[in-house]
């Protein structure tokens, strides 16, 4: 279980960072974190050294401590409930501060006692402004005010936990998201003292989740296969319903837990673009009024969103009072889709046309597909000019439902999704009647010499000839881009040394350095075209999983057991050095060692986190070139 390695980690912390200190002057320090401005509070006072009982600890005492350590204002001060065999050293009890003292020694301090005398069985862990700032948030919920509670530390580790009513209330308030409307409904059990068995326990009035109580005995609540989404009153998200596909339909907006419709007179084109972007549906191509997609039910929101156009979510758009209406004037919207590609051809510049819609690739119907549409697509894909548009079935039957919209390009648009579009009526496009294009190949990509079209030597078409790629720096991230660009699923191997036999012609690219998220191979950093120092014995190759309609999954955050085991392994190395230093010290073989006073780094880095504020961290997309005269207002 996740509790075991982390519990063992904390037990080592007890043994090696809280050894009884020598007699001397008073001192205090924060141990076990990345710097001296965060961590477990250790006090040396009256010839004793140990942690601070958190029974009467408050933000006034924490402020005095941060000031004394020259660490700026206090950010958080949580109460850490220890396990039964942890921190078996005396604890300092009964601290009372007014908040204006220059040091903790000017406050009223109690006596040293063992943990049985500390009512909460908890010690002080705190973070000052000079500490390592960590982020909290709600992930995967459609806006910053809904999702799974998360703490992300500077190393990128993610801790997710179940929150209950009081804790969710504090979390929402800290995020600036209003009150909590939804939280975990599976309540934990009671312990022998009739206390709820929670990993995080709040009263509901704290200013930060990290001013609550943390009980490591119930860490298993943070290592679940599924979590309950927390929803705050400030949550806003959009959806389209009642249309032929997920990117067209009646516009509905959720505020808090309530879905409602929007008056058609309160929807403008700029806001429509933001909705399409939020839904990963490209840009808005037409707005529909008069309940075009049938009337909705429930509330009609009588307010208007006033987006600037560069927002990533409707959540970030300002709002103001709008016109009032009934469901007969429900607004509707049609978006273009997100990305385009050509698949099932001999290279990436020929094949049938597909658009990417909410995580799935869908073929485009051949009805009304013409040379102007194909010209825009070939230019967009860096494939030169259009050569031909074969009729449906030329590149195979394809899979999945056909995208029901048709494009009406002039031929000068920079992107297929910038062209006006309209939805086909009945009868629907016949299966196999898919739009296709053959481009002149400039910028084409293909695989040769493999078992099928999804494995082989990587070849590029440039300035009229096919050439290869050098295997210098060639890795799985580069292969991932190639496989995705060809519609061949995920990369399984990135191969070098002419694994699929040496090619011929120029070696176009060398020292390719993709991150793995690029759309095409020529979006990746590399040496200038044709200026490498390789031979064809170093031609790069790939092996992909095969054709796929679904994009590769996002890499998961590290799980709690993986995180704990990694930290534990590092800590064991530090402990070995520490014991060696102590042995040397006793044998008078080493002088001046200060290891006994130095806490292990990173021990408490997942405990004391600090809210960084609600912020639009998703990169705003550049303005989409859709002019008002290029969309159909089907009112």
UniProtKB/TrEMBL annotation:
Transmembrane segments annotated in the record for this chain: 558-581
Gene Ontology CC: cytoplasm; membrane
Origin: domain of life: Eukaryota
Signal peptide: 1-24
Membrane topology of the entry: Single-pass membrane protein
SMART domains assigned to the protein according to its UniProt record, in alphabetical order: SR
Subcellular location: Membrane
PROSITE patterns: SRCR_1, SRCR_2
Gene3D superfamilies: SRCR-like domain (3.10.250.10)
UniProt entry keywords in alphabetical sequence: Disulfide bond, Glycoprotein, Membrane, Repeat, Signal, Transmembrane, Transmembrane helix
Protein known as: SRCR domain-containing protein
């Amino acid at each position: 279980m996740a509790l075991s390695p982390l519990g063992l980690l904390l037990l080592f912390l007890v043994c090696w960072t809280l050894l009884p200190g020598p007699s001397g002057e008073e001192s205090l320090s924060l141990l076990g974190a990345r710097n001296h401005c965060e961590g477990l509070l250790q006090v040396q006072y009256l010839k004793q050294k140990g942690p601070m009982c958190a029974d009467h600890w408050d933000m006034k005492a924490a402020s005095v401590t941060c000031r004394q350590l020259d660490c700026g204002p206090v950010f958080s001060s949580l109460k850490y409930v220890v396990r039964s065999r942890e921190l078996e050293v005396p604890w300092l009890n009964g601290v009372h501060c007014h908040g204006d003292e220059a040091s903790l020694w000017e406050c009223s301090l109690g006596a040293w006692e063992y943990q049985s005398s500390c009512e909460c069985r908890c010690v002080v862990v705190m973070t000052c402004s000079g500490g390592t700032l960590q982020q909290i948030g709600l992930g995967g919920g459609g806006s910053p005010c809904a999702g799974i509670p998360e703490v992300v530390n500077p190393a990128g580790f993610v801790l997710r936990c179940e929150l209950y009513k009081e804790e969710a209330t504090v979390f929402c308030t800290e995020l600036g998201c209003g009150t909590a409307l939804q939280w975990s409904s599976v309540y934990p059990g009671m312990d022998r003292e009739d206390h709820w068995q929670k990993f995080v326990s709040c009263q509901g009035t704290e200013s930060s989740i990290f001013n609550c109580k943390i009980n490591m005995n119930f860490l298993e609540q943070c290592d679940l296969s599924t979590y309950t989404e927390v929803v705050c009153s400030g949550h806003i998200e959009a959806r389209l319903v009642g249309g032929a596909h997920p990117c067209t339909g009646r516009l509905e907006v959720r505020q808090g837990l309530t879905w409602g419709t929007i008056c058609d007179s309160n929807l403008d084109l700029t806001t429509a673009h933001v909705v399409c972007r939020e839904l990963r549906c490209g840009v808005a191509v037409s707005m529909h009024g008069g309940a075009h997609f049938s009337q909705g039910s429930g509330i009609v929101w009588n307010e208007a969103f006033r987006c600037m156009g560069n927002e990533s979510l409707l959540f970030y758009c300002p709002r103001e009072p709008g016109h009032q209406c009934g469901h007969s004037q429900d607004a509707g919207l049609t978006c273009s889709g997100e990305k385009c590609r050509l698949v099932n051809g001999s290279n990436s510049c020929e094949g049938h046309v597909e658009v990417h819609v909410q995580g799935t690739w869908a073929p485009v119907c051949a009805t009304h597909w013409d040379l102007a549409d194909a010209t825009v697509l070939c230019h967009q894909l860096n494939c030169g000019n259009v050569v031909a548009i074969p009729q449906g079935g030329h590149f195979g039957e394809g899979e999945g439902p056909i995208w029901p919209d048709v494009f009406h390009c002039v031929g000068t648009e920079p992107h297929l999704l910038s062209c006006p579009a309209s939805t086909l009526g009945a009868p629907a496009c016949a299966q196999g009647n898919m739009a296709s294009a053959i481009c002149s190949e400039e910028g084409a990509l293909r695989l040769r010499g493999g078992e099928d079209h999804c494995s082989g030597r990587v070849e590029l078409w440039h300035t009229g000839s096919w050439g290869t790629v050098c295997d210098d720096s060639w890795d799985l991230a580069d292969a991932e881009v190639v496989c995705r660009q060809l519609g061949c699923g995920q990369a399984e191997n990135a191969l070098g040394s002419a694994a699929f036999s040496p090619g011929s012609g120029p070696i176009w690219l060398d020292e390719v350095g993709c991150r793995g998220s690029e759309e095409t191979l020529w979006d990746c950093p590399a040496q200038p075209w044709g200026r490498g120092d390789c031979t064809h014995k170093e031609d790069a190759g790939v092996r992909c999983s095969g054709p796929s309609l679904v994009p590769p999954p996002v890499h998961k955050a590290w799980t709690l057991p993986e995180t704990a085991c990694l930290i534990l392994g590092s800590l064991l190395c530090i402990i070995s050095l520490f014991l060696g230093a102590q042995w040397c010290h006793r044998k008078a073989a080493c002088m001046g060692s200060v290891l006994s006073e130095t806490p292990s780094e990173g021990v408490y880095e997942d405990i004391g986190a600090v809210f960084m504020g609600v912020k639009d961290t998703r990169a705003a997309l550049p303005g989409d070139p859709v002019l008002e005269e290029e969309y159909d207002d089907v009112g």
